[in-house]
């Protein structure tokens, strides 16, 4: 249940409140305020995951929720202003503030004004501090003098994203040997968004479309089969996705009927299935009902398990 | 400080422990175990942010840390096996487990075996539950019967990623009016990774390179200037980035000297600066020392502030 960046435009009305600088929000549902001295992505990610536990009442709008992200909040005045507004709207607050005195101000103001609040990173940071025997810096990521370092890792990630874009949709098959991961599947199995998701995690990904009657590039069969992943999907779900796609591309009725017709969809999936069967070294991943990040987790689990072999399946990183 | 997916290969040795199914890890530094019944990305994201507070000792490897991600852990046997291994390695545990009985098992086993542990989402989930007056489902995201829904939002995100890939590096300028956000800047200001980052958040992004002596597409000046963002960077830092780039592309000495030579870099940035000055409606963002996600936060803050005008600067979403 991910909100559209603009969806608030539909159901919110911002009314000027001439007495002061604030504006009253007239809206339905419960408000969740998220405040960070950084980007706010950690708070947003955590709230998203937590809201997954309330899907049963979110899907039918039984318990409508609006989130409001305030990022880059590094002074106490703005912090208190936001909490005051949260109190007015009956919102709850989720925050990540590196400076202990800012975090403490948030805690106190919330308790004073009756705003339920949760410090997302405080407990982990404390646990890590005592595990490492080192005190946290207390400095927000954007603090003066704290510059993001141009590490090898940084360059590697950017290179992965650029590589992956260039290799989209079967382009440049002569480069397949340079990829860490190669995804193969019929149209609309999510190859492109999955490739990009993995690229941002630092993997060079190529994706190769399987189209009935079209020969796959030879290079696909020359690379290490351990890095090739087949994607498969339930034909009924695929048909639904293809119909949406055909509409948005404005396909003519003829082209559309071929592309999203049930018989064709089934045949093409069988065609892909045969190729997968001929290449037993490629794991085949069922993507039906999975979000992109869920399929990504499965791909990476397999990818790392195969590299480690003898250990407990895990993805390890060094800091 | 983001670890390379493969960096563990360098400093870990996995020794078979023939007496049982476990393997001992011989490694330096402190271990952080992360366990999720889902993808593990929430735990990973939170640990990453928390580790930002220890950069002062991570950069010089004064306090080396290894993280280990275990995703899709939905039965208690595997959970206990992992915690036992964590105890052996003197690791701490960070977990996200939707099923309350799994979370309770983790808590108890950790306390029994002396593994410091933190439940990342438990507190937020409880706070949201009492804010909404609704009980959490207790079902992990991958639980049988729980299928990811093909929402409009899902299709919109995929479309954004596909649009953004097609519009990379100034391609198809006739489509600029279809973009939500347009990024303009000289080579190596991070336009491509920033575009992709924003695309995954659901925005259609186009990026347009500024190259000295090359005319910008006319369409760039025909679109709403409120959606165009200029990127600028310190020339010394840009030179460093370009040198790395030139090396990795294997430029000849001549091409390289032009592209990453200080005079040229400065002149090109001035050229860009003039274009920005001629288009005062475009906000100009300084990317020096900022991670991609930090620049993304600045872009989106401005983007939403301009849309909302009269409200407190925020990014609102509806669930
Ligand atoms: N690299 C970093 N260095 C220091 N603090 C960080 C870093 N990354 C994230 N944080 C902090 O972690 C919290 C969450 O960050 P963000 O996800 O950017 O909102 C904020 O308090 C940030 O200041
Ligand atoms: N859409 C969702 N529905 C139910 N639970 C979710 C959802 N997204 C995340 N979670 C839960 O939130 C925690 C973190 O998820 P993840 O980031 O996938 O590891 C896990 O316990 C997941 O089961
Ligand atoms: Mg594609
Ligand atoms: Mg580029």
Largest sheet of chain A: 4 strands, parallel
Order of H and E elements of chain A? HEEEHHEHEHEHHEHEEHHHEHE
Shape of chain A: globular
> Biggest interface, which chains?
A-B, 137 and 136 residues
Q: Number of helix segments of chain A?
A: 12
The oligomeric status of these chains comes to: homodimer
Q: Helices and strands of chain A: which structural class?
A: alpha/beta
| Residue windows where pLDDT falls under 50 for at least 5 positions of chain A | 1-26
The strand count of chain A comes to 11
Gap from first CA to last CA of chain A:
33 Å
Radius of gyration of chain A equals 24 Å
Small-molecule binders here are:
adenosine monophosphate, magnesium ion
Q: Mean pLDDT of chain A, rounded to whole units?
A: 90
What would you note in describing this structure?
The structure is a homodimer of 319-residue chains. With 319 residues, chain A is of the alpha/beta class. The first copy, chain A, has 12 helices and 11 strands. Chain A has helices spanning 8-11, 41-51, 55-58, 76-89, 100-113, 122-132, 152-166, 191-200, 235-249, 253-260, 262-278, 292-308; strands at residues 13-16, 23-26, 30-36, 65-70, 92-96, 117-119, 181-186, 205-210, 228-232, 284-286, 315-318. In chain A, the strands form 3 sheets. Chain A has a 4-stranded parallel beta sheet, with helices on both faces. In chain A, strands 8-7-9-10 form a 4-stranded parallel beta sheet, sandwiched between helices. In chain A, strand 7 (181-186), helix 8 (191-200) and strand 8 form a beta-alpha-beta unit. Residues 1-26 of chain A have low confidence and may be disordered. The complex binds adenosine monophosphate (2 copies) and magnesium ion (2 copies). One adenosine monophosphate sits between chains B (36-43, 96-98, 121, 140-141) and A (49, 52-53, 55). One adenosine monophosphate (AMP) sits between chains B (36-43, 96-98, 121, 140-141) and A (49, 52-53, 55).
